[in-house]
Amino acid sequence: MITSMSEKTILLVEDNPLDEKLTVRALEKNNIANKIIVARDGAEALDVLFCTGKFAACDPANMPEMVLLDLKLPKVDGLDVLRKIRSNERTKLLPVVILTSSLEEKDVVESYKLGANSYIRKQIDFEKFAEAVRHLGLYWLVLNVPPPSKDERATSKSA
Q: What is the CATH number of the domain that holds 148?
């Protein structure tokens, strides 16, 4: 399923099929043509990121450019996924944007405490949601300069 993520792949972690379709549609509507890998629960997201379970054959060097992470997920909730991402040397610098319908202040605070890069509430109105996704895509996939991979850091130290 995962081949090469050099094309700035997005990992969308979303259990609601309607929200998944809306997010993908909003990305496409805004000409964000990146490959999108969808994990439908927190355990599957961790399998994608850490090459375990049905993703055991994937190359751990291939990382998504960013993760769009819902909080209210089955099996492993979004905050636990974020906690595991930040606790691993290989994934701790990976941009993670919380994309959720949660209005709870404690979720916002805990997300940032755990190292979320951004927290976006899903809009009920599709046009507003599409506009938010457009800005998100432009910033994280076009303007943002990600940290170098571990291999790139090692190469630059030896040069």
A: 3.40.50.2300
